[in-house]
Write a structure and sequence with these properties.
Length: about 280
């Protein structure tokens, strides 16, 4: 164990506001302070990321901790469990490598190990693998639940797209915006490029979504969205990524509402896109 190390940093994290009793920030801090006192460790700082998940390590306080580790402000990082850092084993290993590069050890008090001995490192890898498995299982269950909603609920696919407003879990057409959507499809069949359509709408001073100006990408996003044909659609984007996935990877459920665009017009527009 790292009993010789006298300076430590506490790291706390909760992912949501209503945490399970016994896992709040206050409880985490109290338990870690008790653990540090029992070992006569001086607590140099407390790093706290509230309301942030462990999907990656891009969290403000965790990054501040790494910067302070590089400045040798403490000898040990103390957490309750390794999942406070990350549920991804590669991210966890990268984090620990960064600490060890600066001579800083890592201790998880509830799992009773640290990285200053080989047995602790082995235990870390095993626990890290289980944490990653649990996260991947949760992601899969969440995806399955969302897919059930896409097929059964009027709208469960996030904010209402341009042309609609959300009322009691359903999408309701906004008449003036729906008319702009139909005009976009008509202009695209006439002009043939997203940028030309955006330029035309801008010249006509047509209000753009969210009060912004019209861009080619904005026009494209409307033209390729199956929601305007009365469908629910799920999985167009990777979580946390703005890049659109290939269409064959989307889940599209037709017949969920009255379409804004006539199916014939939609087919014509798609034919132009593939030319």
């Amino acid at each position: 164990m790292a009993e010789q190390d006298s300076r430590c940093a506490l790291y706390l994290r909760v992912s949501t506001a209503p945490q399970v009793e016994g896992n709040s920030l206050t409880t985490q801090k109290r338990q870690l302070l008790r653990y540090a006192r029992l070992r006569d460790w001086e607590v140099k700082d407390v790093y706290c990321d509230a309301g942030l998940s462990a999907k990656d390590t891009n969290r403000p306080e965790l990054q501040r901790l790494l910067a302070d580790a590089a400045s040798h402000k403490f000898d040990t990082v103390l957490v309750l469990r390794i999942d406070r850092i990350s549920r991804s084993l590669p991210d966890l290993i990268e984090f620990l490598d960064s600490l060890r590069d600066h001579g800083v050890e890592f201790v998880a008090s509830e799992q009773d190990f640290d990285t200053s001995d080989p047995a602790g490192l082995l235990t870390l890898h095993v626990l890290g693998s289980f944490a990653q498995f649990e996260r991947e299982l949760l992601v899969e269950r969440t995806r399955e639940g969302q897919l059930r909603k896409v097929h059964s609920e009027p709208w469960s696919c996030g904010p209402a797209p341009y042309g609609f407003r959300r009322e009691e879990g359903k999408l309701v057409q906004v008449p003036e915006e729906a008319e702009v959507v139909r005009r976009i499809f008509g202009l695209y069949l006439e002009l043939g490029t997203y940028k030309d359509v955006a330029r035309k709408l801008q010249e006509e001073s047509v209000p753009a979504p969210r009060g912004e100006r019209w861009w080619g990408e904005t026009v494209k996003g409307i033209l390729v969205n199956p929601v305007y044909a009365g469908c629910n659609v799920y999985g167009r984007y990777e979580k946390g990524d703005t890049r659109m996935k290939p269409r064959e990877e989307w889940t599209v459920v037709p017949g969920m509402r009255k379409p804004i665009i006539d199916p014939g017009v939609l087919a014509e527009a798609r034919a132009v896109m593939t030319m």
